[in-house]
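User: Fold this one for me? It's Acyl-CoA dehydrogenase.
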Amino acid sequence: MSAVDAELIEMMSAVFAAHREKYPPGEGIVELWGRLDELGLVRLTGSEESGGSGAGWAEAVELLRAAAWHGVKIPLAEHDLLACWLLETAGLAVDEARRTACLLDDQGVARAVPWAAEAQRVVLLWRDGPGHRVADVETASLAVTASLNNAGEPRDAVSADLASLSGTPVTDDVVAQFTRRAALVRAVQVCAALDRILALSVAHAGERTQFGRPLAKFQAVQHLVADIAAESALARAATDGALAEALRSDWSSPHLDFLVAVARSCVGHATSVVVRNAHQVHGAIGTTREHRLHEFTMPALSWRSEYGSVAHWDETLTGYATTAGADGLWALVTATGT
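Assistant: Here's what I get for Acyl-CoA dehydrogenase.
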């Protein structure tokens, strides 16, 4: 991905840091949304013609990383990278309403939809005969059952009457890209949370003393932290690789689905190691609500299972490997196959 201006990254981080100094996790979202809107960050990747900022995924990724790093819960990805992108792709108008998006099943139901109950509109995507349609619908006109994930973020059930919907046709490629984008969004967010967990673990090991010396001096603790660093780096490398291929090919690479599966599998398994080791490094204090560790471990565990569970992505990779066979495995891994 292209480099992002350092001052822009610093400004993003400062906005979220200031918000967290004033509000606990999950609160003050309306105020923060207004501030981000003033700065042109709510629709960062939207076209300027439709009222967006005209930036790209590189900037959006840094925005998501900054929010996750500071433990801020806000539907930026759902609004900009999924819902508003779908509207623009379908040639539909985009206004200032806060949105989320979901893919309905054949009964018109979508489960664990991020932020649906708190959104003003929901962009619906559903199968209609041989193709798909998309519609921008007021949340009040839908049946929404509020719920939360384990990190305390809204993950709601949405039900719509498919017979009463009149949407705009979109190609199957749009649907495929929607699922890829959603999967990579969560990978980016998990990687940012893992990076913050690493930073917290390094700081704690250096500051906390036991038997008269810092925890960082104990070889067992060093091994725990080293594993956190290695797994975080692996997850980030796999995610960045998938993102780079997505942007290079405008989300059309024949290898992209495989790379997304690699990223999500690596991220999912890395989270297990990072969370386990971080809690071992922190000990009992890491399990308290007063300590900030849970603000990053719980989202990481929740996000890794959204838009496809770890088992789902592992099974997907298994399918690619068995299809390629022994003779085609190296070409698959190095993305040189046809």
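One thing worth pointing out: The two ends are 24 Å apart (CA to CA).
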